[in-house]
Amino acid sequence: MNAQKNLNTSRPLDVLGKSLNSQVLIKLKGGREFRGVLNSFDMHMNLVLNDAEELESGESSRRLGVVLIRGDNIVYISPE
Amino acid sequence: MNAQKNLNTSRPLDVLGKSLNSQVLIKLKGGREFRGVLNSFDMHMNLVLNDAEELESGESSRRLGVVLIRGDNIVYISPE
Amino acid sequence: MNAQKNLNTSRPLDVLGKSLNSQVLIKLKGGREFRGVLNSFDMHMNLVLNDAEELESGESSRRLGVVLIRGDNIVYISPE
Amino acid sequence: MNAQKNLNTSRPLDVLGKSLNSQVLIKLKGGREFRGVLNSFDMHMNLVLNDAEELESGESSRRLGVVLIRGDNIVYISPE
Amino acid sequence: MNAQKNLNTSRPLDVLGKSLNSQVLIKLKGGREFRGVLNSFDMHMNLVLNDAEELESGESSRRLGVVLIRGDNIVYISPE
Amino acid sequence: MNAQKNLNTSRPLDVLGKSLNSQVLIKLKGGREFRGVLNSFDMHMNLVLNDAEELESGESSRRLGVVLIRGDNIVYISPE
Amino acid sequence: MNAQKNLNTSRPLDVLGKSLNSQVLIKLKGGREFRGVLNSFDMHMNLVLNDAEELESGESSRRLGVVLIRGDNIVYISPE
């Protein structure tokens, strides 16, 4: 299966590589949401957003500018 | 037992390999559910869904398109 | 003690090896229960059930067919 | 201290080795309790009980027979 | 700093080595308390108490005799 | 992707290196917030703030001076 | 960045080395607070306090004398 997998599929974090300098939506454990431009990430899913804002009910509730989010808080990341 | 196991049984993550490009249902800790087409996964169960939607009471509540879900949130994955 | 242990006792996961292709009851953290036929498992207790159903108060509440359960959610596994 | 410790004291899991084939009481995180005959254990405190029952307020609430308990759920184990 | 530390200070678990065969108070996550005679411990803070009792509001609520407590539940240990 | 990543992007913790001796806002799991001057950090995101204060509703509720925050509590860090 | 970091900044746990034999305030997950004289620590932030007391609303609620606190419970440590 591994050989087949390597040929036919990408790795999950490749989605982050493709999203650099683009806007992403981040959902954290507990429900917090952030939107911002992905600046960097590592294999723990630690990531830095630029022009970041925290959202409540989809509306901006706090402008953070640059923010480093610790990866273990993340539920999902979705490119927008 | 190991020899017997290797002969007679598959490994749990083989189910993900067989589900690539097919629709899966994902249940997360806390109860969140997602449905989408499995695009990639790794050994931590980090995975990417395409055409993903978040579900509430089995109905689509949010269309996410592409979403990277962090594996440590996952309770179960079921091919549909 | 180790020598004595190796001679006289089995390892806990041997119970899973003996339960392959048999029905098991799975209890998860938070109280969720599943019943199904054990198809595969690994050392993290990730496991795949066939003919799986989720239970509420001992009754089937949802038929899942094939399901991969992430091992870190598991409280106990009992062969039936 | 290490030398002194090795001479004068045993290791905590030795209590499990001495309890094989004897009845033990298991308390889990969240308050669940089990009583059964210890059949096997490993260094993660994964363990198998035979003739196991789940307890509520000290009374048997569910007979499980053989049960594999995942070690990370355990608060304490007490030989009876 | 390391050299200075090794000369001037002890290591935290040395307190457990000095408490062997003496009474200790154990506080667990969630608030549970135990008192007993420390019989053994390891580097994960797994430990065995003899003559152990569970406490409620400082009073004995359950006599456990010998008990193996899994280290990851522990908040603090205090020699008495 | 790795080569491209190394050329074009920085690593998330570089944001902390650039924030040394500057004021940062720290959000912890559970909602606690701190503001202070970043004095040091390590790869676990353990960090030391000088002139630190704990915030409630954005207002200073407790002056701590020097504080070492354990990295596993951190949700995000934002330079101000 | 690493070279610059090693030259210009200290490591977070250095704050603990400098606080040996001095009074510190400890905040735990869940809100518990302790005050005492730091006797020892290790890289997991396991630490021993002498003359320790547990605090409620900043007042002493329980005198513990010597206490070993397991590092994974700690939110922050502040020298006083």
TrEMBL record, chains A, B, C, D, E, F, G:
Q: Which UniProt keywords apply?
A: Ribonucleoprotein
Q: Which SUPFAM superfamilies match?
A: Sm-like ribonucleoproteins
**Which intervals hold domain Sm?**
11-80
PROSITE patterns noted in UniProt: SM (PS52002)
Is the Ribonucleoprotein keyword given for this protein? Answer: yes
Signal peptide positions are: none
Ribonucleoprotein in keyword set: yes
**SMART domains reported in the protein's UniProt record:** Sm (SM00651)
* InterPro entries in UniProt: Lsm7/SmG-like, LSM_dom_sf, Sm, Sm_dom_euk/arc, snRNP_Sm-like_arc
GO MF annotations, alphabetized: RNA binding
Pfam families, A to Z: LSM
**A Gene Ontology CC term for this entry?**
ribonucleoprotein complex
Name the protein family.
Belongs to the snRNP Sm proteins family.
Name the HAMAP family for this protein.
Answer: Lsm_RuxX
Q: What is this protein called?
A: Putative snRNP Sm-like protein
